[in-house]
Amino acid sequence: MPESPSFVLEAANQPLRPDTVTVAGPKAEEVLVEVAACGVCHTDLHVIKDEVAFPKPAVLGHEVSGIVREVGEGVTHVKPGDRVACSFIMPCGSCRHCQKGLEDICENFFNYNRLAGQLYDGTTRLSRNGEDIAMYSMAGHASHCVVPSRAVFALPEGVPLLESAVLGCSLFTGYGAVSTVAGVQPGETVAVIAAGGVGLSIIHLARAAGAERVIAIDIDDDKLALARELGATDVINSATADPVAGVTELLGHGVDVAFEALGSVATVKLAVDILDDGGRAVLAGIAPAGHTMDVDITKVVRRKLRIFGSFGAPASTAMPEVIKLAAEGKINLQKLITHRFAFEQTDEAYRLLNERKILGRGLIETNPELA
Questions:
Q1: What phi, psi does 266 have (nearest 5°)?
Q2: Residue 163: domain span
Q3: Are 132 and 124 spatial neighbours (Cβ–Cβ below 8 Å)?
Q4: pLDDT single digits (tens) 15-27
Q5: Of 43, 259, 253, 79, whose CA–CA distance to 169 is shortest?
Q6: Can you give the pTM of this predicted structure?
Q7: Where does the signal sequence lie (predicted)?
Q8: Are residues 272 and 183 in the same domain?
Q9: Cβ-based neighbours of 30, under 8 Å, separated by 6 or more
Q10: 45 shares its domain with 65
């Protein structure tokens, strides 16, 4: 059982504190990964700020790449020494949803991990002085983590190890929204509200899917400039211009698909308001608990609008596709990652994220020597 330098969230609204935790070895169908890098995601910030309930003390971090160090019984698709990226959704493969291919709403992932901070035998793999430590997904803000094998994917040569961490949430979530849920088609018009890590990934992937127009909407000109670099054909600063009027001025009507990537009442309403007749609103941003939608019901009914939720993607099909896009050079990991941090800067990374100072995706280079 390796002793793992980690960052622990002891209580809500507290800094992530460096500590050492014990990581138990992998059980059947699990993989021990030495972490090379871990992404900085707003969902973890929700947990830190107690906007999403989660047990504490906990190790956060759910966007991981690294090297396989040990595999549990039954794992044959990866072996020690393999370079891997891990999806934040860790499907059990056996619940009623997984059996239908709906791995992104795996019951065991939500009931055991998201509600209890455990893996699927009802225990955590982390402890400190005999005390259990909760795991947020695989608990990637550490030197080592244990991951259910269905969430572990080998990386081909040529795909950079450190940067591949962001494949497992930012791009994985974006791919689920663009391809699995919205089914964006060549020639369609798209708007993306909130050009953060996930929003920029959606912009990038929507263009790769053939969207003719991709309109980025945000309140930060620097983020909008980066959105243009990643494929946005048009940008609207909603702090200085009415985005509904702006979309109509650009297109003469609403968009075929509007993606909401922040998670707020106002931006969800905006996603619906900028749709063309028959359009699709895809909600991919996590909102604080208790926030509800504010939409015009008659408009949704009369204009045949569709509202979808999108949380990640089916790991077994989406992660190979995202990795393939990276291998083919169709997604620019270097450009998506705008801020890099050393492992000891983990808490600072979330402070900057909370202050909206990270434009794209932040990356914590946990063990850069592994690359």
A1: -65, -40
A2: 3-169+313-370
A3: yes
A4: 999 999 999 999 9
A5: 43
A6: 0.92
A7: none
A8: yes
A9: 71, 72, 75, 119, 125, 146, 147, 148, 149
A10: yes
